[in-house]
Write a structure and sequence with these properties.
CATH class: Alpha Beta
Helix content: 10-25%
Radius of gyration: 19 Å
Shape: globular
Keywords: Dioxygenase, Iron, Metal-binding, Oxidoreductase
Number of strands: 20
Order of helices and strands: EEHEHEEEEEEHHEEHEEEEHEEEEE
Number of domains: 1
Largest sheet: 7 strands, mixed
Organism: Mycobacterium novum
CATH topology: Double-stranded beta-helix
InterPro entries: AtsK-like (IPR051323), TauD-like_sf (IPR042098), TauD/TfdA-like (IPR003819)
Number of helices: 6
GO molecular function, one term: metal ion binding
Family: Belongs to the TfdA dioxygenase family.
Distance between the termini: 36 Å
CATH superfamily: Clavaminate synthase-like
Strand order of the largest sheet: 1-2-3-17-8-19-4
Structural class: alpha+beta
CATH architecture: 4-Layer Sandwich
Length: 318
Protein backbone atom coordinates (compact mmCIF):
# COMPACT_ATOMS: atom_id res chain seq x y z
CA UNK A 1 0.00 0.00 0.00
CA UNK A 2 1.18 3.53 -0.77
CA UNK A 3 2.48 5.52 2.20
CA UNK A 4 0.30 8.26 3.66
CA UNK A 5 1.26 10.62 6.46
CA UNK A 6 -1.78 10.92 8.75
CA UNK A 7 -1.91 13.30 11.71
CA UNK A 8 -4.65 14.86 13.85
CA UNK A 9 -6.07 18.07 12.45
CA UNK A 10 -5.17 19.71 15.76
CA UNK A 11 -4.17 17.97 18.98
CA UNK A 12 -6.93 19.59 21.06
CA UNK A 13 -9.80 18.69 18.69
CA UNK A 14 -11.77 15.41 18.65
CA UNK A 15 -12.35 15.60 14.90
CA UNK A 16 -10.38 16.01 11.68
CA UNK A 17 -7.19 14.62 10.17
CA UNK A 18 -4.28 16.01 8.15
CA UNK A 19 -3.07 13.80 5.33
CA UNK A 20 -0.17 14.16 2.93
CA UNK A 21 0.87 11.77 0.20
CA UNK A 22 -2.34 11.75 -1.84
CA UNK A 23 -1.74 12.12 -5.58
CA UNK A 24 -2.88 10.59 -8.89
CA UNK A 25 -0.89 7.42 -8.20
CA UNK A 26 -1.74 6.78 -4.55
CA UNK A 27 -5.45 7.50 -5.01
CA UNK A 28 -5.67 4.54 -7.41
CA UNK A 29 -4.57 2.11 -4.68
CA UNK A 30 -7.66 0.23 -3.32
CA UNK A 31 -6.12 0.01 0.15
CA UNK A 32 -5.46 3.75 0.21
CA UNK A 33 -9.02 4.44 -0.88
CA UNK A 34 -10.42 2.22 1.86
CA UNK A 35 -8.16 3.81 4.46
CA UNK A 36 -9.23 7.32 3.41
CA UNK A 37 -12.91 6.35 3.72
CA UNK A 38 -12.30 4.88 7.16
CA UNK A 39 -10.46 7.99 8.40
CA UNK A 40 -13.20 10.20 7.00
CA UNK A 41 -15.92 8.22 8.77
CA UNK A 42 -14.03 8.30 12.06
CA UNK A 43 -12.83 11.92 11.99
CA UNK A 44 -15.54 13.71 9.99
CA UNK A 45 -13.14 15.90 8.05
CA UNK A 46 -9.84 15.56 6.19
CA UNK A 47 -7.37 18.29 5.28
CA UNK A 48 -5.29 17.09 2.34
CA UNK A 49 -1.99 18.95 2.31
CA UNK A 50 0.74 19.31 -0.33
CA UNK A 51 -1.74 18.46 -3.06
CA UNK A 52 -1.12 19.22 -6.72
CA UNK A 53 -3.47 22.19 -7.44
CA UNK A 54 -5.42 20.38 -10.16
CA UNK A 55 -9.20 20.17 -10.75
CA UNK A 56 -8.87 16.68 -12.20
CA UNK A 57 -7.15 15.47 -9.03
CA UNK A 58 -9.93 17.06 -6.98
CA UNK A 59 -12.44 15.00 -8.96
CA UNK A 60 -10.48 11.76 -8.55
CA UNK A 61 -10.07 12.23 -4.79
CA UNK A 62 -13.73 13.24 -4.40
CA UNK A 63 -14.87 10.04 -6.12
CA UNK A 64 -13.13 8.01 -3.41
CA UNK A 65 -15.94 9.03 -1.08
CA UNK A 66 -18.89 8.60 -3.43
CA UNK A 67 -20.43 9.74 -6.71
CA UNK A 68 -20.37 13.43 -7.51
CA UNK A 69 -23.50 15.56 -7.48
CA UNK A 70 -23.54 18.41 -9.97
CA UNK A 71 -25.15 21.76 -9.22
CA UNK A 72 -28.71 21.92 -10.66
CA UNK A 73 -28.47 25.59 -11.69
CA UNK A 74 -26.88 25.74 -15.14
CA UNK A 75 -25.80 29.37 -14.73
CA UNK A 76 -23.52 28.53 -11.79
CA UNK A 77 -19.96 28.76 -13.17
CA UNK A 78 -18.17 25.47 -13.80
CA UNK A 79 -14.44 25.20 -13.14
CA UNK A 80 -12.29 25.67 -16.23
CA UNK A 81 -15.33 26.09 -18.44
CA UNK A 82 -16.85 22.73 -17.49
CA UNK A 83 -13.77 20.73 -18.43
CA UNK A 84 -14.13 18.72 -15.21
CA UNK A 85 -17.82 17.80 -14.64
CA UNK A 86 -18.90 18.19 -11.04
CA UNK A 87 -16.48 21.00 -10.16
CA UNK A 88 -18.10 24.40 -9.69
CA UNK A 89 -16.39 27.76 -9.19
CA UNK A 90 -17.56 29.82 -6.21
CA UNK A 91 -16.41 33.35 -6.81
CA UNK A 92 -17.30 36.99 -6.80
CA UNK A 93 -15.60 40.14 -7.94
CA UNK A 94 -14.70 42.98 -5.60
CA UNK A 95 -17.79 44.63 -4.04
CA UNK A 96 -20.02 42.29 -6.04
CA UNK A 97 -21.77 40.15 -3.42
CA UNK A 98 -23.12 40.50 0.09
CA UNK A 99 -21.31 42.82 2.49
CA UNK A 100 -21.94 42.61 6.22
CA UNK A 101 -20.55 44.17 9.36
CA UNK A 102 -19.19 41.62 11.86
CA UNK A 103 -17.41 42.75 15.01
CA UNK A 104 -17.10 46.27 13.61
CA UNK A 105 -15.50 45.14 10.36
CA UNK A 106 -16.96 45.07 6.84
CA UNK A 107 -16.53 41.71 5.12
CA UNK A 108 -17.90 39.88 2.11
CA UNK A 109 -18.47 36.15 1.49
CA UNK A 110 -19.27 35.71 5.19
CA UNK A 111 -21.40 32.65 5.95
CA UNK A 112 -22.92 31.71 9.34
CA UNK A 113 -22.75 28.19 10.76
CA UNK A 114 -24.85 25.72 8.76
CA UNK A 115 -25.01 22.36 7.05
CA UNK A 116 -25.57 22.12 3.30
CA UNK A 117 -29.02 21.37 1.84
CA UNK A 118 -30.82 21.98 5.15
CA UNK A 119 -33.69 23.42 3.06
CA UNK A 120 -34.01 20.17 1.05
CA UNK A 121 -35.39 16.79 2.09
CA UNK A 122 -32.16 15.09 1.01
CA UNK A 123 -28.74 16.22 2.19
CA UNK A 124 -25.41 15.55 0.51
CA UNK A 125 -22.77 13.27 1.99
CA UNK A 126 -19.88 15.69 1.80
CA UNK A 127 -18.38 18.83 0.32
CA UNK A 128 -14.85 19.19 -1.07
CA UNK A 129 -13.13 22.58 -1.38
CA UNK A 130 -9.93 24.04 -2.85
CA UNK A 131 -8.86 27.68 -2.91
CA UNK A 132 -7.91 29.01 -6.35
CA UNK A 133 -7.60 32.71 -5.58
CA UNK A 134 -6.97 33.56 -1.93
CA UNK A 135 -7.19 36.82 -0.01
CA UNK A 136 -4.74 38.81 2.07
CA UNK A 137 -6.61 38.35 5.33
CA UNK A 138 -9.66 36.32 6.39
CA UNK A 139 -11.54 34.12 3.95
CA UNK A 140 -11.13 31.21 6.35
CA UNK A 141 -13.53 28.27 6.33
CA UNK A 142 -14.62 27.04 9.74
CA UNK A 143 -15.62 23.51 10.70
CA UNK A 144 -17.27 22.18 13.86
CA UNK A 145 -18.24 18.65 14.85
CA UNK A 146 -21.87 17.83 15.68
CA UNK A 147 -20.78 14.90 17.86
CA UNK A 148 -18.72 17.30 19.95
CA UNK A 149 -21.53 19.87 19.99
CA UNK A 150 -23.98 17.29 21.33
CA UNK A 151 -21.65 16.54 24.24
CA UNK A 152 -20.99 20.24 24.93
CA UNK A 153 -24.63 21.36 24.91
CA UNK A 154 -26.09 22.16 28.33
CA UNK A 155 -27.75 18.90 29.53
CA UNK A 156 -31.12 20.55 30.17
CA UNK A 157 -31.22 22.00 26.65
CA UNK A 158 -30.04 18.70 25.20
CA UNK A 159 -32.94 16.90 26.87
CA UNK A 160 -35.44 19.51 25.68
CA UNK A 161 -34.35 19.61 22.01
CA UNK A 162 -33.63 15.91 21.44
CA UNK A 163 -36.53 14.21 19.69
CA UNK A 164 -37.64 17.41 17.95
CA UNK A 165 -37.39 18.18 14.24
CA UNK A 166 -36.29 21.56 12.88
CA UNK A 167 -37.98 23.39 9.98
CA UNK A 168 -35.85 25.01 7.28
CA UNK A 169 -36.61 27.23 4.30
CA UNK A 170 -34.59 28.45 1.33
CA UNK A 171 -34.05 31.95 2.69
CA UNK A 172 -30.40 32.79 2.18
CA UNK A 173 -30.58 36.36 3.46
CA UNK A 174 -28.65 36.75 6.69
CA UNK A 175 -30.74 39.69 7.89
CA UNK A 176 -33.75 37.34 7.99
CA UNK A 177 -32.05 34.83 10.32
CA UNK A 178 -34.36 34.08 13.23
CA UNK A 179 -31.99 32.02 15.35
CA UNK A 180 -28.35 32.25 16.32
CA UNK A 181 -27.50 35.50 14.57
CA UNK A 182 -24.23 36.95 15.85
CA UNK A 183 -24.34 40.02 18.07
CA UNK A 184 -23.22 43.16 16.28
CA UNK A 185 -24.31 41.87 12.85
CA UNK A 186 -25.34 44.51 10.32
CA UNK A 187 -26.18 43.99 6.66
CA UNK A 188 -24.43 46.61 4.53
CA UNK A 189 -25.22 45.23 1.08
CA UNK A 190 -27.48 42.25 0.30
CA UNK A 191 -26.51 39.76 -2.37
CA UNK A 192 -28.64 41.13 -5.20
CA UNK A 193 -28.15 38.13 -7.48
CA UNK A 194 -29.63 35.83 -4.85
CA UNK A 195 -32.81 37.82 -4.28
CA UNK A 196 -34.70 36.06 -7.06
CA UNK A 197 -33.81 32.70 -5.50
CA UNK A 198 -34.88 33.94 -2.05
CA UNK A 199 -38.24 35.17 -3.40
CA UNK A 200 -38.82 31.88 -5.22
CA UNK A 201 -37.87 29.92 -2.09
CA UNK A 202 -40.73 31.52 -0.14
CA UNK A 203 -43.17 29.57 -2.35
CA UNK A 204 -41.54 26.20 -1.71
CA UNK A 205 -42.28 23.68 1.05
CA UNK A 206 -40.18 23.74 4.17
CA UNK A 207 -37.76 20.90 4.85
CA UNK A 208 -37.70 19.00 8.13
CA UNK A 209 -34.59 17.48 9.73
CA UNK A 210 -33.95 16.04 13.21
CA UNK A 211 -32.19 18.27 15.71
CA UNK A 212 -30.29 15.21 16.91
CA UNK A 213 -29.65 11.99 15.03
CA UNK A 214 -27.73 8.81 15.85
CA UNK A 215 -24.97 7.38 13.68
CA UNK A 216 -24.55 3.66 13.08
CA UNK A 217 -21.63 3.88 15.49
CA UNK A 218 -24.06 4.92 18.23
CA UNK A 219 -22.73 8.47 18.47
CA UNK A 220 -25.33 11.20 18.69
CA UNK A 221 -25.00 14.27 16.47
CA UNK A 222 -26.39 17.72 17.24
CA UNK A 223 -27.24 18.81 13.70
CA UNK A 224 -28.89 22.22 13.73
CA UNK A 225 -28.25 24.89 11.12
CA UNK A 226 -28.99 28.30 12.68
CA UNK A 227 -28.93 29.76 9.16
CA UNK A 228 -32.29 29.13 7.42
CA UNK A 229 -33.93 27.55 10.49
CA UNK A 230 -37.63 28.48 10.76
CA UNK A 231 -38.60 26.83 14.04
CA UNK A 232 -39.53 23.51 15.61
CA UNK A 233 -41.89 21.27 13.66
CA UNK A 234 -45.34 21.10 15.23
CA UNK A 235 -44.47 23.70 17.86
CA UNK A 236 -44.23 27.11 16.22
CA UNK A 237 -44.92 28.93 19.46
CA UNK A 238 -43.03 31.67 21.32
CA UNK A 239 -41.95 29.10 23.91
CA UNK A 240 -40.56 26.73 21.27
CA UNK A 241 -38.81 29.63 19.52
CA UNK A 242 -37.14 30.57 22.79
CA UNK A 243 -35.96 26.99 23.17
CA UNK A 244 -34.46 26.86 19.69
CA UNK A 245 -32.77 30.23 20.17
CA UNK A 246 -31.37 29.08 23.53
CA UNK A 247 -30.00 25.92 21.91
CA UNK A 248 -28.42 27.88 19.04
CA UNK A 249 -26.84 30.43 21.35
CA UNK A 250 -25.54 27.76 23.73
CA UNK A 251 -24.17 25.79 20.79
CA UNK A 252 -22.41 28.83 19.34
CA UNK A 253 -21.03 29.86 22.73
CA UNK A 254 -19.47 26.44 23.34
CA UNK A 255 -18.46 25.51 19.80
CA UNK A 256 -14.88 24.27 19.36
CA UNK A 257 -14.16 25.07 15.73
CA UNK A 258 -11.26 24.75 13.38
CA UNK A 259 -10.82 27.67 10.96
CA UNK A 260 -8.70 26.87 7.94
CA UNK A 261 -6.47 29.48 6.33
CA UNK A 262 -6.22 28.39 2.71
CA UNK A 263 -3.12 27.59 0.66
CA UNK A 264 -3.13 26.59 -3.03
CA UNK A 265 -1.97 23.07 -2.16
CA UNK A 266 -4.78 22.39 0.36
CA UNK A 267 -8.02 20.52 -0.17
CA UNK A 268 -10.67 19.81 2.47
CA UNK A 269 -13.51 17.31 2.61
CA UNK A 270 -16.10 17.41 5.41
CA UNK A 271 -18.98 15.14 6.41
CA UNK A 272 -22.15 17.16 5.82
CA UNK A 273 -24.23 14.71 7.89
CA UNK A 274 -22.10 15.45 10.94
CA UNK A 275 -20.23 18.73 10.60
CA UNK A 276 -21.27 22.37 10.49
CA UNK A 277 -19.24 24.88 8.52
CA UNK A 278 -18.96 28.65 8.19
CA UNK A 279 -16.84 31.29 6.42
CA UNK A 280 -15.14 34.17 8.22
CA UNK A 281 -15.46 36.67 5.35
CA UNK A 282 -12.82 38.95 3.87
CA UNK A 283 -12.13 42.47 2.58
CA UNK A 284 -14.93 43.37 0.11
CA UNK A 285 -12.36 44.90 -2.24
CA UNK A 286 -10.62 41.55 -2.80
CA UNK A 287 -11.89 38.77 -5.08
CA UNK A 288 -11.84 35.16 -3.90
CA UNK A 289 -12.31 31.98 -5.95
CA UNK A 290 -12.97 28.45 -4.63
CA UNK A 291 -13.49 25.18 -6.50
CA UNK A 292 -16.04 22.81 -5.00
CA UNK A 293 -17.26 19.29 -5.59
CA UNK A 294 -20.24 17.75 -3.82
CA UNK A 295 -20.58 14.07 -2.87
CA UNK A 296 -23.96 12.34 -3.09
CA UNK A 297 -25.30 10.36 -0.14
CA UNK A 298 -28.20 11.04 2.20
CA UNK A 299 -28.99 9.81 5.73
CA UNK A 300 -32.68 9.27 4.95
CA UNK A 301 -34.10 11.28 7.85
CA UNK A 302 -35.27 14.48 6.14
CA UNK A 303 -38.61 15.18 4.50
CA UNK A 304 -40.79 18.06 3.36
CA UNK A 305 -43.45 19.46 5.66
CA UNK A 306 -46.82 17.85 4.95
CA UNK A 307 -45.08 15.29 2.68
CA UNK A 308 -45.05 17.94 -0.05
CA UNK A 309 -43.03 17.65 -3.22
CA UNK A 310 -39.85 19.65 -3.56
CA UNK A 311 -38.31 21.56 -6.44
CA UNK A 312 -35.11 21.02 -8.40
CA UNK A 313 -33.71 24.32 -7.15
CA UNK A 314 -33.63 22.80 -3.65
CA UNK A 315 -30.79 20.56 -4.80
CA UNK A 316 -28.51 23.60 -4.97
CA UNK A 317 -25.58 23.47 -2.57
CA UNK A 318 -25.30 26.11 0.13
Amino acid sequence: MATLDVKPLREDLPFGARITGVNFQTVEDPEVRERLRRIFDERGMILFEEMKPDARLQVEVSKVFGPLKDHPVSTVPRAEGGLHPGVIAISQAAREGNIVMIDGKEVTSWLPWHFDHCYNNELNRAGVLRCITGVTEGGETGFADGIDLYKLLTPELRTQIEGHNILYSLNLRFADMRFGLADGFTEIQPHVRLQQTIDYGKKLPRAVHPAVWTRDSGEKVLHISPWMAEGIEGAETPEAERLLEAVCQDMLAKIRPYFHKWRPTDMVIWDNLRMLHAVSGHDPDEPRVMHRTTIQGDYGLGFFEGNAQGDRILEMTV
